[in-house]
Structures are given as structure tokens and as C-alpha cells.
Amino acid sequence: MAYPEDLDAVISMVLMADPVSLSVVRQRFRRWLTTLRWPEQEIDDVVMAVNEAVTNAIEQIHPSEIGAEVRVAARQYAEPDGGRRVLVAVAGGKLWRPEPAGFRGQGLLMIHSCMDDVGVSREHDGITMMMTSAKVPPLTYEP
Amino acid sequence: MNGFLGGMPPAEQLMTLNRDDRDGCLVLIVHGEVDLSTGSRLMEAGSEALHQAAGRPVVLDLSGVDFLSSSGMGLLVALHDEGRTMRTPLRVVVDETRSVIRPIRTMGLDEVLALFGSLDEALTA
């Protein structure tokens, strides 16, 4: 890897499946990407997408899953040209199916508009939503 | 980290609401972040304002809003529809320079809501 920052560029958290967790995840992602010197607009996009994915997971926590958690992890990586992206994974309750909820499913539309790629991967303990951000310029160092 | 929530303020502090009567309009001033945790409070206050306006326009001032989720945008549409049913105009103030204008445009809400760039514009409309 070309950038020493990449070694540290991971973030992960376990959130209570409750709406109060949303401001926590937004604040932590904003702080993390600011530290990694991401442009303002791309930070807004990632924060928006993560907020919508976690919202969807929280809205669809099944009543049988008392004390459920939402797990969020992200990693920054560099492409061969030095451009950087983040890959974000959001795992909801065991019964979570990332699908329309709330504002007639507009959250998913919003996620797609904020991220370059969105997919789901089926794990043994449920579904994980994977989101790849837009590409931002390489870090440059002042001499 | 201060416990499970990492020292985050409760939803009451995340979004604050203030009401004002100005130039024949009922103004609801919103500050902070509108998401799934704060949206129901805004929905209630907005709905109450529409009912108490008695035909006067209701102005929802979002100039001080830092974050607006899709759930927040959903409630703006719901309030807009409620106002139309009651024949009470709902005017929404969004500062063009703030980041919340982008998701509003992405979702096409600028085609649905009566948007104004400043409170003065909304009051004199």
C-alpha cells in the first residue's frame, strides 16, 4: 500500500438497534473520513448512505430479536491509480432483509445515489449490505 | 467513549423546535438533525402547527438543519399533503448553500414542496 494511513483506515462499531444509534454512526463516520481528509461532499454521501442502511436495519428488526444489534464496519482502500474508496458493511438482525421501509423505500434509492456500488452478501447469521463509495483523490503530502 | 452511546446527546438535543408568529405566518424553526429518532417530534409539531394555523401559511424553517434523512424527507411530504388537504399552505425554507439541499434535489422533493431560500422569502410569498 502506498499510504501509511491505509493501515489505520478501518472503523467498526456495534450499535443498539434503536434510532438513537443513528447520530452516533453519522458522527463517527464523519470524524473518520475527515481524519482521512476526504472531500466534504463525498463525506456527506457516505454518511447519508450509512445512515440510510442502518435506518433500514433498525426499522426491520423483528420483535423476536430483543436486544438486537446492528454491526457496521468500513475500510478505506486505494486503487492502483491511488484513488481512494471506502467499502462499508452493515449487518442487521438475523431476519433483516434490506428492502423498502419508511418513506416508501426511498432510503434504498438514496443509498444507490450516494454510493458507486451496492450489494448484499448472505452470511450464515443474516444478510450484510455492502456499499462501495465513490472514488476520491489520493492523499497528497506537503513537502 | 462514555458508555454504549459514546456520549451522544439524546434525541431531544439532537433536534430543537421553536415556534413563532411572524407576518401572519406560523413559523416552525428547526435546528439540528432530522432522522428516524427525531422525525416523529417534527411530524407532531408540524401537524399541530397546520391545525392551529387556521388557514394562515405555515413556514417550516430548515435553515438550521444539518442533516436530513430520507425518513425526514418522507415526513416533509406527509406534512405537505396534510396541509393541502386542510388548504393550509406549507412553505419550506432551505438554505441553498447547505448540504441538505442536495438530498432534497436527489429525491425530487424540490418538485413537490414549496421551497424558499430564506425565511424572508417564505414570509412574503
From TrEMBL, chain A:
Supply the alphabetized keyword list. Answer: ATP-binding, Kinase, Nucleotide-binding, Serine/threonine-protein kinase, Transferase
Q: What is this protein called?
A: ATP-binding protein
Q: Is Kinase a UniProt keyword of this protein?
A: yes
Database matches in InterPro entries: Anti-sigma-factor_SerPK (IPR050267), HATPase_C_sf (IPR036890), HATPase_dom (IPR003594)
Cited PANTHER family: ANTI-SIGMA-F FACTOR RSBW, ANTI-SIGMA-F FACTOR RSBW-RELATED
- Pinpoint the Histidine kinase/HSP90-like ATPase domain residues: 17-131
MF terms in GO? ATP binding
From TrEMBL, chain B:
Record-linked PROSITE patterns:
STAS
Q: Which protein are we looking at?
A: Anti-sigma factor antagonist
InterPro entries named among the record's database cross-references: Anti-sigma_ant, STAS_dom, STAS_dom_sf
Q: Which domain of life is it from?
A: Bacteria
Family stated for the protein in its record:
Belongs to the anti-sigma-factor antagonist family.
* Residues of the STAS domain: 15-125
Pfam families cross-referenced by the UniProt entry: STAS
Q: Where would one find coiled-coil regions in this protein?
A: none
Organism annotation: Pseudonocardia xinjiangensis
